[in-house]
Amino acid sequence: MVKWLTRRLGKARLLRWFMGFYPPYLGAGVRVRHISDDFRQVQVCMGLHWYNRNYVGTQFGGSLYSMVDPFFMLMLMENLGRNYIVWDKSADIDFISPGKGPVFARFSIDQGLLDEIREQTANGEKYLPQMRVDIHDGAGTLVARVEKTLYVRLKPQARQA
Fold it and tell me: Which InterPro entries match (predicted)?
């Protein structure tokens, strides 16, 4: 069934559809607006609702972080392929201004990053790329900046080949 859906809809579109029903995102009000077919561009948004609002009426910090949490890892996994281990290692979120309405984030990776990762991991060593995504409100005001460090390494069987 999943293979049929993947062929019919495409992997990116199927993931976007699935994320719409993923309980943590459904509960936080996070919506995946776009995933490019090559998994190099992702856009997400989150409205301000009673269930993701904090005590002072702005976006809850945990919801802001959850809206951006998995995407760099997913994007790298899809672009590097099955021979790589990709994990989130650490993250830091800097709250710049209160999110008083809908917020948006755009993720992007380029060929240069993928080439760098392949070069740094070619001998079997781990590599810890640092990625950044900004969260803006509808007016373009910076609400939060998230810095993520990922762990990337060739799988043991790929290192032996």
Answer: DUF4442, HotDog_dom_sf
